[in-house]
Amino acid sequence: MHCWQDNLFIIEHRWPVLAKTLINTRSLPLEILPSKTGHPIPHLDHRSMHSMYDPIREAQKYLLAGKESCIIMGIGGGYLLAEALQKQLSFICVIEPSLSFLRAILEYFPLKHLLKDPRTHLIVPKTIEDVFHHLQHFYQPIIHGDLALIAPRIMIDSYPIFYQSFKDHWLRWSQDLAQELSTIRFFGQRWIKNIIANIASITPSYTQRPLSPKREIWVTGAGPSLESIQKAYDEHKDKEITIIASDASLLPLYSYGLSPDIVISIDAQIFVATHFLDIPEKDLPPIIADLSIHPSVTRNRETLFFAGSHPLSQLTPLQHLPTSSGNVGTIAYLLALHLQATTIRNFGLDFAYVNAKPYASPSYLYQTFTATSHRLHTLSQQIADLTFRSTSLTYDAKTHTYQSSLLAFYQEQFNHIVNQKYPAYRWEKVSFNGIQFLQQYKQDISNLPLVEPYQWSSLSQREQQLYFSLIPSLLQSQYSHATFKEDLEKNTLFVLNILDQYLN
C-alpha cells in the first residue's frame, strides 16, 4: 500500500475529483508476472499489457512515430508513459477506461514520478466526450505539436466499443481542429493588429455604457428567411421589441423600413465595412464589436467593444462574449441570452442556402453582382456560382436547402448555444485606458522567457496567458514546430513592433 499512498498524494494534488473517486473504488485482482528482463508486467484478462520480453524496448518502438505529443490508451505498468516523458514530448494524455484497474495499478506500481510531471494528463472518462472536452482545454496544437495515438492491441481487444467510439470522435475532432487551425493561420496576424489598434483607440474618458435587460429580442442574420421579418414585425407593432442585427443584415433591414436597436460585428477583414456603406451615419445604432473587428468599422462611431475568444482580448476588463462559433448571427443570439430576454426570435439564421439562394435581398453581394453583371455573366449565374462553389454541398429535399460543411459547423455551434444554459448578466459600465493597458502588456511580453514546447508547463499561469495572447499570430505558412523557440521570438518581436506604432 506504500505505492498507493504515494501515487494517491500526487493524484489528490493534480486531479482531486479523480482521487475521491479512486478512494471509493474497489481494485481489480491484479496478475503480475515478470518479463525476461525482470520488469513486472500487469495482465488484463490473463493477457499481458506489455511485452513479456522487454517492455522498455517495446515502448521505445511505439514512440518512434516522431510526433511531438501523444495519447496513450491504457496506463498499464507506466512503461509507455515513462518513455514518452523521457523523449521530452510536450503533452502526454493517458486514457484509462477502467477505474478499478487503475486503482489496482496504483497500488502496485510506483508511478508518482510520472504522474507529477506537468506534461502528464490522466483521464478516466465517464463518456468519450469527456476525453475531447479535456483535449479542448489542455491540448494546444501550435504549442504541443502533432498528436500521436498509441493504442496497444490489448486495449483495442479489451475495450472494443470504447475504442471504436473513440476513433469515430477522434476523426471528427481532428477535422474540426484542422479547420480551426486553418482559420487561425489565415487571421492570426490580422487579429492581433486589429485588437491592438482598437485597444489603443479606447481613451481614458471611454466609459462603456450599460445595456439594460430586454424582454423580447429579435435576432437577425442575413439568410433568405430574413425577408419574412417585415410581415412578422407588422403583426407585432404593439409589442416592445428589441432588434439585434448582425452587420450583414443591416442593409436588408433598412430596406424593409426597420431600424435595429443594436448591430453586432466581429469580422477582422476590411470588407466587413461594406455592410455599413449605404446606411446614413445618423441612423446607425450602437455597434457592439469584438476587439478583433477591423478598425474601419468602428472609427468615429458609437461602439461598445467586447472581449471575444482571442486570448489578448480576454486579458482586458471588457465584457466577454465567446466568438469561437465564428458566426456573427450566433453571437447576436448569445447576446440576447445574456440580456435576459424571455422571448427570442431569429430571422435569417438559416445556415443553409434556401431554394439555392444564399442571402436575403438586398445585400451588398447582390449590389456587387448587379453592378458587374452583363449578358454573358448574369446576376443569376453569379449567385449560382457563389452557392455551388463548394463541392461538399448536401441537399435536403424536404426543406429545399443546400448546406456546406462550414454552414453545418455554424449550425452545430448555434444549436449548442440555444440548448445550453448561459448566465444572464447586465452589461455593466467599464472604464478602461487602452494605452495604459498596452504599455503594461508590452512590458510583460518583453520579459517573457523563451521556452521549448516541452518546457511550456514549467511557465507560470500568467506567463502562459501572455504567451497564449501571442500564439495565434505565430501560426503562419513558414511556421515549423521544429523551430518553435526561434519562431516564438520572431513573433514576439512582430507584436512588439505593432505596439510601438501606437505607443511611440
Protein model, in words:
The chain is α/β, with parallel strands linked by helices and 504 residues long. It has three domains: 2-158, no CATH class; 185-190 and 433-503, no CATH class; 207-419, no CATH class. It is built from 20 helices and 18 strands. It has helices at 2-14, 16-23, 55-62, 79-86, 99-108, 112-115, 128-138, 141-144, 153-158, 160-200, 229-234, 250-255, 295-298, 328-338, 364-372, 379-387, 405-419, 434-446, 461-474, 484-503, and strands spanning 31-34, 40-44, 47-48, 69-73, 91-95, 120-123, 147-150, 207-208, 216-220, 242-246, 262-265, 287-290, 303-306, 343-347, 353-354, 394-396, 401-403, 430-431. The strands form five sheets. The protein has a six-stranded parallel β-sheet, covered by helices on one side. It has a four-stranded parallel β-sheet with strand order 6-5-4-7, with helices on both faces. The protein has a three-stranded antiparallel β-sheet with strand order 1-2-3, with no helix packed on it. Helix 19 (461-474) crosses helix 20 (484-503). The longest helix has 41 residues, at 160-200. It is globular. The model has no long low-confidence stretch (mean pLDDT 86).
Number of domains: 3
| CA-atom Rg in angstroms | 27 Å
N→C terminal distance:
64 Å
Shape: globular
DSSP strand count: 18
Helix content: 40-55%
- Unreliable stretches, pLDDT < 50, 5 or more residues? none
Determine the structural class based on helices, strands and strand pairing.
alpha/beta
Main pleated sheet:
6 strands, parallel
Q: Numbering strands along the chain, what is their spatial order in the largest sheet?
A: 13-12-11-10-9-14
Mean pLDDT: 86
Proportion in β-strands: 5-15%
- Helical stretch tally: 20
